[in-house]
Design a protein that fits this description.
By secondary structure, the protein is α/β, with parallel strands linked by helices. The protein has two domains: about 150 residues, Immunoglobulins (Immunoglobulin-like), CATH 2.60.40.10; about 250 residues, Metal-dependent hydrolases (TIM Barrel). The protein contains eleven helices and 18 strands. An eight-stranded parallel sheet has the order 2-3-4-5-6-7-8-9, with helices on both faces. Helix 3 packs across helix 4 and helix 8 runs parallel beside helix 9. The two termini are about 35 Å apart. Bound molecules: zinc ion. Zinc ion binds next to loops. The site of zinc ion has 6 residues, from loops.
Length: about 400
C-alpha cells in the first residue's frame, strides 16, 4: 500500500538539522488541479485501459477527479484502481447516445436506482436536461434521489432548467456543467440568484485562451468559491487531453491572485465534493479496510516513546506497539489527525541527537487508514540499538508543505 510514499528516512546530521524544529517549508510543486468533468465510457474503456487513465491523471498532477461514465463500469474500474484520486459520480446513461432520451425512459431511472443501492457516489450526473423537461416525472425523481442519497446534481443545462431543478427541492446542490456555456455576466446572475449552485468550466477553452479577460477576472473575483475546472472527456480520445487542460489552466490562473487561483484550481471542488464523498463512501462501512478511526488526542498506553505531538492544525499520536527493549525490533503506529489529509505523506525517523546518529535499520511502513481527516501508518521493524535519549522525528508533507514534529524519550 503505497509503501514508497511512506519512506522511512535514514537519518544523518543533515536530516537532524532539517527536521530539528517544527518548521514549514514550501516545496516547489505544480499547482494542484481538480478535474470535475471526466467521463470514461464503454468505448473509452475499450480504447484506453484504466491503468493508463490513472497514469495520465497522475502525470497531470491531478489532486482528484470527478468521474461519471456511460455505463458506470468505467467509473468503478478507475475508482477501484485509485480510490485516493477518483470521486465517482453516477450518470443515468447505460450507453453513449442516451442524452436526449433518458428523462422519459423508465429504464434509465431503474438503472440509476439499482446502482445507488449497490455503489457509493458523490454526484448524480452529468446529465443533459433543458428548460421545462426538468419538471418531468423522471428528473423530479432524480432530484428526490439526490436529496435522499446526499448527492450533488451535475447538470448540463440551460439557466431555466437549473432554476427548475433547484426549485424542486430545498436541499439539493447543483454543479452546473460548462457553466451552461453562458457568458460571465449570465453566470454571475445565476450564482447571485442561487446559493446552492456551483459551476464547472469544462470545455470552455475560450476562458483562458490568449490570457484571462476582464469579465472572467471579475467573475472569479466576485465568486471566488463557486467555480471549478474540468476537461470533459466526452469522446475516448479526450482522455489524453486531461494533462493539457491542467497545464493550460495553470497558465491562465496566473492572472488571478494566488488564493483565488487555488480556489478555482481545486479548493472549490474539494469543498463541494469531498465532504459529500467521504460521508457517502463511509456510510455503510465501505471505508478503507484497516484500523477504525482513532483520536489523536489521547495516547492509549504509557509505553516509553508514546506521545501526542501538535504542530499547527496537525496532531500526531506516536505509539510503540510494545515496550521498547534495546536492540529488539518493535512496531510503531503513527496516527495523524488534521484537515485535508488526502494528499499527505508521513515519515518516521528516530535519532540520538547527542550522538548525531540514527537507526541502523529501515522499518517497513503500511498505511492502515487514509481519510481526509486521518492518516494512520504502521512501521514494523523499528530497532533502537543503544540506551539513552532518543528523538522521534515525524515528517509530514501535506500538499507539498512540510511540517516536522519531534518528541524526546529515554530508553534504558
Ligand atoms: Zn460531460
Amino acid at each position: 500500500m503505497n509503501k514508497s510514499l511512506h519512506r522511512f528516512y535514514l537519518s544523518c546530521a543533515a536530516a537532524v538539522s532539517l527536521l530539528g524544529a517544527s518548521s514549514f517549508v514550501q516545496a516547489q510543486q505544480p499547482l494542484a488541479i481538480a478535474d470535475v468533468h471526466v467521463h470514461y465510457s464503454h468505448d473509452s474503456v475499450e480504447m484506453t485501459p484504466p491503468q493508463r487513465v490513472i497514469e495520465i491523471m497522475r502525470a497531470a498532477s491531478l489532486k482528484f477527479a470527478l468521474v461519471s461514465s456511460s455505463d458506470d463500469n468505467g467509473t468503478q474500474l478507475l475508482s477501484k484502481l485509485a480510490p485516493d484520486l477518483i470521486i465517482p459520480g453516477l450518470r443515468p446513461y447505460r450507453r453513449r447516445g442516451e442524452l436526449s432520451t433518458w428523462f422519459t425512459d423508465p429504464g434509465a431511472l431503474a438503472y440509476v436506482e439499482k446502482l445507488l443501492a449497490t455503489n457509493r457516489y458523490a454526484s448524480l450526473g452529468e446529465f443533459h436536461l433543458y428548460g421545462d423537461d426538468a419538471n418531468l416525472e423522471i428528473p423530479q425523481r432524480i432530484v428526490e434521489l439526490a436529496d435522499q442519497y446526499n448527492l450533488i446534481l451535475h447538470a448540463h443545462s440551460d439557466a431555466q432548467a437549473i432554476d427548475n431543478l433547484l426549485a424542486l427541492n430545498p436541499n439539493v446542490k447543483v454543479l452546473w456543467a460548462h457553466a451552461g456555456f453562458d457568458s460571465p455576466d449570465e453566470i454571475a446572475q445565476m450564482l447571485t440568484k442561487h446559493d446552492r449552485l456551483w459551476a464547472d468550466l469544462a470545455f470552455r477553452g475560450e476562458v483562458g485562451s490568449g490570457g484571462l479577460d476582464e469579465s472572467w477576472i471579475k467573475l472569479f473575483t466576485d465568486f471566488p468559491d463557486r467555480l471549478m475546472l474540468g476537461t470533459d472527456t466526452y469522446t475516448p480520445e479526450r482522455i489524453f487531453y486531461i494533462p493539457e487542460q491542467a497545464s493550460s489552466a495553470r497558465e491562465w490562473l496566473k492572472a488571478l491572485p494566488d488564493e483565488i487561483a487555488e480556489r478555482v484550481a481545486w479548493k472549490n471542488a474539494h469543498d463541494l465534493l469531498m465532504p459529500v464523498w467521504l460521508a457517502n463512501r463511509d456510510s455503510d462501512g465501505m471505508a478503507a479496510a484497516g484500523s477504525p478511526s482513532a483520536s489523536c488526542e489521547i495516547a492509549d498506553n504509557d509505553t516509553a516513546g508514546t506521545a501526542v505531538v501538535m504542530g499547527g492544525d496537525l496532531s500526531v499520536k506516536i505509539q510503540p506497539q510494545s515496550a521498547i527493549d534495546v536492540s529488539a525490533a518493535f512496531a510503531v503506529q503513527l496516527t495523524l489527525c488534521g484537515n485535508d489529509l488526502r494528499d499527505t505523506e508521513i515519515q518516521l525517523d528516530a535519532t540520538m541527537p547527542k550522538h548525531g546518529h540514527g537507526m541502523n535499520y529501515t522499518p517497513e511502513s503500511t498505511v492502515t487508514t487514509h481519510t481526509d481527516s486521518q492518516l494512520s501508518v504502521r512501521f514494523d521493524g523499528v530497532l533502537l540499538h543503544m540506551p539513552g535519549t532518543w528523538q522521534w522525528q515525524v515528517n509530514v508533507v501535506r500538499a507539498g508543505v512540510q511540517t516536522a514534529l519531534t518528541h524526546d524519550f529515554e530508553i534504558q
